[in-house]
Amino acid sequence: MGRTRIKICGVRTLETARAAVNAGADAVGFVFYKSSPRYIEPEEAWPIINRLPPMATTVGLFVNASFDDYADVEQVCPTDFGQLHGQETERTVRECGPRIIKAIRFDAATVREDLARWAEVEEVDAILVDGSSGGLGVALDWKALTDAKSSGGEKPIILAGGLTPANVAEAVRTVRPYAVDVSSGVEVAGRPGEKDPALIEAFCEAVRAADR
Predict the structure, then answer these.
(1) What CATH number corresponds to the domain at position 73?
(2) Could you give the CA distance from residue 200 to residue 188 in angstroms, rounded to a whole number?
(3) Which of 39, 50, 56, 177 is buried most, with the most CB atoms less than 10 Å from its CB?
(4) 8: closest CA among 162, 212, 195?
(5) Does the annotation mark 9 as catalytic?
(6) Among 114, 130, 181, 196, the one annotated catalytic
(7) pTM value?
(8) Is 130 a catalytic residue?
(9) pLDDT tens track of the chain, all 212 residues?
(10) If we measure between CA atoms, which residue out of 142, 131, 137, 135 comes closest to residue 170?
(11) For residue 182, what are the β-bridge partners?
(12) Which domain holds residue 12?
């Protein structure tokens, strides 16, 4: 098993993006969903992306966006991957592809079916499993996901939902995901969208410790 990749999502400032990369994060995510407290205008995200160091991966997060809406944002602020975090149809996912991360909400009764569904879509490069609709810090049943993970075929699995510096090592050891994704778990208490550099560093170190 290779090392676990790390994505810090909900980035809104250059300082946060640099803190994430300096701490060892592989990817930073920008939320292009206007109802989220972590929303950033594409025109504001693009200058941040342009000042990231080489080899830092960028991800744009969308929720139930049409292909036209997706394309409009990508024209202003192209990212390495698009993360579709809603109830998008297979047609929409294919239209937005390639290089798509498809998020699903964990449900023990349907997780195998959901993983198998998106494993069949060529444009999906990875499947993200969240404990909620995203950004709410809701953890999922890691053991149940571990048992179901093979249903995703060869698609990498990204674990999200309720991860923090205190529990991510256990999550990594249990699930052995390709990557972990965190947003609210590295934020200043009571301030949605405001990331704490110290928590980002602690989160990344906890993942590395679990890998070791």
Answers:
(1) 3.20.20.70
(2) 11
(3) 177
(4) 195
(5) yes
(6) 130
(7) 0.95
(8) yes
(9) 589 999 999 999 999 999 999 999 999 999 999 999 999 999 999 999 999 999 999 999 999 999 999 999 999 999 999 999 999 999 999 999 999 999 999 999 999 999 999 999 999 999 999 986 555 667 789 999 999 999 889 999 999 999 999 999 999 999 999 999 999 999 999 898 999 999 999 999 999 999 99
(10) 142
(11) 8
(12) 5-211
d(CA 170, CA 143): 11
Strands in 63-167 per DSSP E = 81-84, 100-105, 124-130, 157-160
**Total of domains in the chain:** 1
The tokens for 148 are 């179901």
Q: Which amino acid appears at position 204 of this protein?
A: C
d(CA 46, CA 78): 8
Determine the residue type at 185. Answer: G
Q: Which helix (H) or strand (E) holds 44?
A: helix 42-50
